[in-house]
Amino acid sequence: MRVLLVEDFVPLLNSVAQGLREAGFAVDTASDGKTGLWHATSNDYDVMVLDLMLPGLDGLSVLKRLRQAGRRYPVLILTARDTVPDRVIGLDTGADDYLVKPFAFEELLARVRALVRRQYNQPSTLIHIDSLHIDTAARRVWLDNQEIQLTAREYGLLEYLAVRSGQIVSRTDIWEHLYEFDSDAMSNVVNVYIGYLRKKIDPPGQPSFIRTVRGSGYVLEIPGS
Amino acid sequence: MMQSLRTRLIVGIATSTVLLLVGSGVVVYMLLCRAMTNEVDRSLSSEVHLLIPLVEYDHNGVDLDVGSISEKNHPAVDNLVELWLEDGSVVKRSPALKNHDMKRLPTLSNNLRIQDSWLDDATPVRYAQITFDVSPEDPAYALPPRRVTLGVAHLIAPLYRQLAQLRIVLLVSFTGITLIAILIVMVMVTYTLQPVHRLGLHIAQLDHDNLKQTVDRSNMPSEIVPVVDRFNELLGRLDAAFERERGFTGDVAHELRTPLAGMRSILEVTCSRERSISQYQQALADLHPVLIGMEEMVNKLLMLTRLDAAQILPEFQPVALNDTIHAVWRPMAESSNARQIIFRNDMPDTLQVVTDKNLLQMVLSNLLGNAVAYTPVGGQITLRTATNRQHAKLTIANTGCDLKPDDIEHVCDRFWRGDRARSDTGLHSGLGLSLVQRAMELMRGTFNVRVTDEGSFEATLCLPNLTVQSTA
């Protein structure tokens, strides 16, 4: 999943971005409001983590313009202002969640995951597709009772396909949700990782969980359905 | 209870009214009493003078025609008359006396004396007595004059009854008037004090979060309008002070929370998994400037608080200005040189001012520190002075200022930062210029900032009324 992080305090920006990446998210960052708005309206993120006190353009203005531009993905406000009026204004402007600084990083991570689940209508952290079981909170995968070891990128790809299981997911979609803005990955990397994933999760001698739809993309579904 | 203005006014006015009414009543009563008594006395006096010629003296002795008294009697007065010879024997007694005697005054006088008295049966009377000599009317009677005493009295019980009735009437009427007056006073005082009462109610409901509700002066009496105006001004200042305090508290919380969030995040992410030594070292290196920034902010906050509370009292002494600048600049020179900033100091070496050395060092440290931080690579920082008899002026200018004209009025606000400084949240606290301003006030100087047309930021210190010496 891809997250946009907009925060002007560089030590905080860098540490949160590092933590989110290590948790498997693709993270784009911006340290001022205008750059943040440009990123936010140019790409389709799964979650945006937005500070309010930003140089150039303040966070609430960024949020307002984001919603006016028709972007509906979840936004989590990160700020030092904790009064009820501040929270109300933030939520009424269009934010989906509010976290006061300083915060526990684990809590931020859990809230981001919750917003991602909401974005894809996943009520639970557990996804079951036939014999394939995915725990999105623990980032673990089982085929029947056998745990499968995936790399961070493989897991990210599987999770994205799983939350959109039954839907055709284009390569562009996959790229936009798994790779950062300044990623230097090659254009066929999606194909390559689909191949890696199939090798690890497909039951031997059985149809693949991941079906290729020629000219459109991929679908994660019950094999043979 | 007497603390209430309304009660004081009512009690005061009512007491005055009661005293006035009672006093008036007493005076009226006494005047009436006197008048009625005088009337009786006049009647007695005229009776006496009417009776004196009626005393007859012949060879039969002294006599008084009581019948003629009855004819002359005032229909409202009982006719009490008695005539004594000098030896105290009674010559004549009026029928109304029956068997009673009047009390002859022991001291006989040719002057008419009138006073209260009693009959021997204790009946109160108003008694007039005069002693005179009678001579025979007929000169043929060669008799020596006889000294006689005439006493005339009127019963005064009716008078006393009238006076008693008068007292009752006066008491009842004045009591009624007093009660009505008190009622009127209460109503009028309550009505008159309504504006004060409204003012009191308004003040009572004021709280720290509704100080913007000023008192409506439109229906206030002219005497209270100045009070209301001053009160509204005070409310405005109080509201502004609370706003500043709220804002300051909120700003402090915000400014401290962000670096704390950074520190916490660095630590928690670093400790979330096993890392290499270099990664731990990097995390610690990332923490250090954040801590330094927080320390600086706390120190500046503490300094501001002490300056505001006048806990720091300036000690004025001669200070070599250029030496101070060199001492302050020395630790900044390295970072300035690394960014190829040109530092130009036009100050003469001999310039001295009389001021507080420590405060001046703090001021210069903040201004030069800001100049180094916000001058772009390859830019320039310039110091220049101007002196006259009244003051010494020092201007520190740096190129590359991107503040907007509207920003200038805010640069000395606590925690205010321009957008560029906001990118250094946690490293630049936004307190430096507030400190400079406050310190300059303590040093009896002024501090001004401006942005030139060429885009330079100029901070000017002016130290007035101090001895400016050239030690050349």
List keywords for this structure.
heterodimer; A: 225 residues; alpha/beta; 5-stranded parallel sheet; 4-stranded antiparallel sheet; 11 strands; elongated; B: 472 residues; alpha+beta; 5-stranded mixed sheet; 10 helices; 15 strands; rod-shaped
Could you give a short description of this structure?
The complex is a heterodimer of chains A (225) and B (472). Chain A is α/β, with parallel strands linked by helices and 225 residues long.
How would you describe this structure to a colleague?
The complex is a heterodimer of chains A (225) and B (472). Chain A has 225 residues and is of the alpha/beta class. In chain A, 40% of the residues lie in helices and 21% in strands. In chain A, the strands form three sheets. Chain A has a five-stranded parallel beta sheet, with helices on both faces. In chain A, strands 6-7-8-9 form a four-stranded antiparallel beta sheet, with helices on one face. In chain A, strand 1 (2-6), helix 1 (10-22) and strand 2 (26-30) form a beta-alpha-beta unit. The two termini of chain A are 26 Å apart. In chain A, 40% of the residues are buried. Chain B is an alpha+beta fold and 472 residues long. In chain B, the strands form four sheets. In chain B, strands 4-3-7-6-5 form a five-stranded antiparallel beta sheet. The longest helix of chain B has 47 residues, at 5-51. Classes of the chains: A alpha/beta (225), B alpha+beta (472). The interface between A and B is medium-sized, with 28 and 29 residues.
